[in-house]
Amino acid sequence: MSGADAPSKRPGSILFVCGMNAIRSPMAEAIARSVLPGTYIASAGVKDGERDPFVDVILAEEGLTLGDRKPQKYEDLADGFFDLIVTLSPEAHHAAMSATETEATAVEFWPMPDPSAVTGSRVQILDAYRDLFRRIRTRLDEFKER
Predict the structure, then answer these.
(1) Does residue 7 form part of some domain?
(2) Can you tell me the distance from the alpha carbon of 131 to that of 97, in angstroms, rounded to the nearest whole number?
(3) Is residue 2 domain-resident?
(4) What is the arrangement of strands in the sheet containing 84-87, beginning at the earlier edge strand?
(5) Nearest partner of 67 among 82, 47, 51, judged by Cα
(6) For residue 94, what is the domain's CATH number?
């Protein structure tokens, strides 16, 4: 079977999880929706969070949007099944591993920095968010090529 004829190994559904579903996981969700058409994409956080306005700025620069979505908690999605859970922080990875230990769900850890920890000028902070965007986009581009 040639590469073009081989069935795709891409999961049909992916959940991105981070600490509060405010920065890393919603950004990954928006990027994944643009680069993985036909794949069901969602995101959640381990704890309650508030939407981060810097995420909206960076996504808008790239022609992407989260629309009116609000942060949601991982435990609220507990009855949902995903083929793959991508965790973006150690806290999220621990929670996903514990929650899926009796399931056939694959879990991958893609450690990503938290740009909200960066201090300085607005430009410096936005650069940290842009760096996160590039890191996630690179991982998703590599993932797409599997």
Answers:
(1) no
(2) 27
(3) no
(4) 40-45, 13-18, 84-87, 106-109
(5) 51
(6) 3.40.50.2300
Q: By residue range, what is the domain housing residue 30? A: 13-144
Counted domains in the chain: 1
Q: Kindly list the averaged pLDDT for each block of 10 residues, start to end, along the chain of length 146.
A: 52 94 97 94 94 96 94 80 94 91 86 96 97 97 87
Residue 20, C-beta contacts closer than 8 angstroms, at least 6 positions apart: 45, 46, 47, 48, 49, 50, 71
For CA atoms 62, 111, 73, 29, the dihedral sign is: positive
- Residue 1 domain-assigned (yes or no): no
Whole-angstrom distance, CA of residue 46 vs CA of residue 89: 10
Q: What burial class does residue 26 get, using C-beta atoms within 10 Å of its C-beta: 0-12 exposed, 13-18 middle, 19+ buried?
A: buried
Question: Residue 78 domain-assigned?
Answer: yes
